[in-house]
Amino acid sequence: MSLLLSVKNLSKVYKLNKAEMNSFRETFRSIFNRQEQIRNEFFALNLASFDLSSGEILGITGPNGAGKSTLLKILSEVTYPTSGEVEIFGRVASMLEIGTGFHPELTGRENVFFNASLLGMNRAETEQKFDQILAFSEIGEFIDTPIKRYSSGMYVRLAFSVAIHTHVDLFLIDEVLAVGDINFQEKCKDKMKELSAAGAGIILVSHNQRMLEEFTSRLLLIDGGEIIFDGNTNEGLKLYGRNLD
Question: Under CATH, which number does the domain 3-244 receive?
Answer without folding.
Answer: 3.40.50.300
